[in-house]
Amino acid sequence: MARLPVIEFWYEFASTYSYLSAMRIEDAATAAGVDIRWRPFLLGPIFSTQGWNTSPFNIYPAKGRYMWRDMEREAARTGLRLRRPAPFPQNSLTATRVALLGADEPWGPTFSRAVFDKAFGEGLSIEEPSAIRDLVALVGLDSDSIMRNATAEANKTRLRAVTEEARSRGLFGAPTFFTEDGEMFWGNDRLDQALAWATGDRPSGVR
């Protein structure tokens, strides 16, 4: 059987639009005949290089008001729950460490969707390690083992390397999608275009 094209899905648990993408990407990818590589990372270090210490949706209030209204519309359109967590954005370090541990494991996407649902579907905190431990158990994993491995120095080093990779590849927000030829697409509203590009379905005149 021929190998399916692959897109990388770079996401951040504090990102509203990453929530929308995470909850629909697998169905969309299956329909398009594309495989997904889940790539959790941290946006905070990238924002800090731009002089930001919080989300641009907080820095620019008008943009933030629009985003939350847009999220209401999109969540309603796609049948997702939406509750704004407080604070926003949340510290996603522990969740990202666990997700990175499972990025290449069958449980990784399931765990990631559970985190997003808790944060934006229920509006509950994902900042405390205890909250993430509960989600690990919820998806049927050994929480002691997973949490121990997630916080081990090797995994911490890996996360720093992944976040540096994101920066070096020019990522500036989430979600971001890369096709195998290196084409970058930013935002939930570009997911379908990324999937089409991955399969060779591209606008005429664009190589």
Question: How would you sum up this structure, described in words?
Answer:
The chain is 53% helix and 9% strand. By secondary structure, the chain is an alpha+beta fold. It has a single domain, classed as 3-Layer(aba) Sandwich (Glutaredoxin), CATH 3.40.30. Strands 2-1-3-4 form a four-stranded mixed beta sheet. Strand 3 and strand 4 (184-186) form a beta hairpin. Helix 6 packs antiparallel against helix 7. The longest helix has 18 residues, at 61-78. The two termini are 27 Å apart. The mean pLDDT is 95.
Characteristic terms for this protein:
single chain, about 210 residues, alpha+beta, Glutaredoxin, four-stranded mixed β-sheet, 11 helices, about 10% strand
Name the CATH superfamily classification.
Glutaredoxin
| Uncertain segments | none
Mean pLDDT across the residues is 95
Structural domain tally:
1
User: SS-based structural class?
Assistant: alpha+beta
SSE order, one letter for each helix or strand: EHHEHHHHHHHHEEH
For the sheet with most strands, the description reads: 4 strands, mixed
β-strand number: 4
Strand content: 5-15%
Level of helix content? 40-55%
In what order do the strands lie side by side in the largest sheet? 2-1-3-4
CATH topology: Glutaredoxin
Overall 3D shape: globular
- Computed over alpha carbons, the radius of gyration is 17 Å
Reading off the top of the CATH hierarchy, the class is best stated as: Alpha Beta
Distance between the termini: 27 Å
